[in-house]
């Protein structure tokens, strides 16, 4: 059996005892599972530093323990806001506006000709380059650029977008959120 195979088998065999130790430290099953997972990832990444023939379980418990204390130190630096004073000063744009805008965009997208819709989805949503999109569609790069340009123009017309000011909150919401933050 290779060293890598025996290391992997040792990791798997240690999971139940690692989890029990993690639960005893964190007092929370979900956090314990995350802690065990992080321990296994770190152990796998650092398996070259493990000395075969030494106690794997002890090495894993040390990693788990160190990870637990690192997380505890991080949590101490987090700001506690039990009365909600800090949270009250934060503001976000209403989620329904984004949802409504997305629905409007989907409807507008459906109104585009198929070739334009395909091109803008490949470039804008899927992240393909113009060259890749042209290859996928079996046409010239210039054709894809033209389709995307026409699709963007048509979407702006359908959605009534005239400039960057049309994105984000409406003027009333912007005024309200800016006075809350200030």
UniProtKB/TrEMBL annotation:
<keyword id="KW-0804">Transcription</keyword>
<dbReference type="InterPro" id="IPR013325">
    <property type="entry name" value="RNA_pol_sigma_r2"/>
</dbReference>
<dbReference type="InterPro" id="IPR014284">
    <property type="entry name" value="RNA_pol_sigma-70_dom"/>
</dbReference>
<dbReference type="GO" id="GO:0016987">
    <property type="term" value="F:sigma factor activity"/>
</dbReference>
<dbReference type="InterPro" id="IPR000838">
    <property type="entry name" value="RNA_pol_sigma70_ECF_CS"/>
</dbReference>
<dbReference type="Pfam" id="PF04542">
    <property type="entry name" value="Sigma70_r2"/>
</dbReference>
<keyword id="KW-0238">DNA-binding</keyword>
<dbReference type="GO" id="GO:0006352">
    <property type="term" value="P:DNA-templated transcription initiation"/>
</dbReference>
<dbReference type="InterPro" id="IPR036388">
    <property type="entry name" value="WH-like_DNA-bd_sf"/>
</dbReference>
<dbReference type="InterPro" id="IPR013249">
    <property type="entry name" value="RNA_pol_sigma70_r4_t2"/>
</dbReference>
<protein>
    <recommendedName>
        <fullName>RNA polymerase sigma factor</fullName>
    </recommendedName>
</protein>
<dbReference type="InterPro" id="IPR013324">
    <property type="entry name" value="RNA_pol_sigma_r3/r4-like"/>
</dbReference>
<comment type="similarity">
    <text>Belongs to the sigma-70 factor family. ECF subfamily.</text>
</comment>
<dbReference type="GO" id="GO:0003677">
    <property type="term" value="F:DNA binding"/>
</dbReference>
<dbReference type="InterPro" id="IPR007627">
    <property type="entry name" value="RNA_pol_sigma70_r2"/>
</dbReference>
<dbReference type="InterPro" id="IPR039425">
    <property type="entry name" value="RNA_pol_sigma-70-like"/>
</dbReference>
<dbReference type="Pfam" id="PF08281">
    <property type="entry name" value="Sigma70_r4_2"/>
</dbReference>
<feature type="domain" description="RNA polymerase sigma-70 region 2">
    <location>
        <begin position="15"/>
        <end position="77"/>
    </location>
</feature>
<keyword id="KW-0731">Sigma factor</keyword>
<feature type="domain" description="RNA polymerase sigma factor 70 region 4 type 2">
    <location>
        <begin position="104"/>
        <end position="155"/>
    </location>
</feature>
<keyword id="KW-0805">Transcription regulation</keyword>
């Amino acid at each position: 059996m290779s060293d890598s195979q025996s290391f992997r088998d040792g990791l798997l065999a240690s999971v139940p005892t690692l989890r029990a130790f993690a639960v005893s430290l964190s007092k929370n099953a979900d956090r314990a599972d995350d802690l065990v997972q992080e321990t296994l990832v770190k152990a796998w990444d650092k398996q070259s530093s493990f000395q075969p023939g030494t106690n794997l379980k002890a090495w894993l418990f040390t990693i788990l323990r160190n990870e637990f204390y690192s997380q505890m130190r991080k949590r101490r630096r987090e700001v506690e806001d039990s009365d909600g004073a800090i949270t009250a000063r934060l503001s976000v744009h209403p989620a329904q506006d984004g949802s409504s805008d997305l629905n409007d965009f989907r409807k507008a997208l459906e109104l585009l000709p198929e070739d334009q819709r395909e091109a803008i989805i490949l470039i804008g949503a899927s992240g393909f380059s113009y060259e890749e999109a042209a290859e996928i569609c079996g046409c010239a790069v210039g054709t894809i650029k033209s389709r995307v340009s026409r699709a963007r123009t048509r979407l702006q017309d359908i959605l009534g977008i005239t400039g960057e000011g049309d994105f984000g909150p409406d003027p009333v919401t912007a005024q309200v959120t800016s006075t809350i933050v200030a």
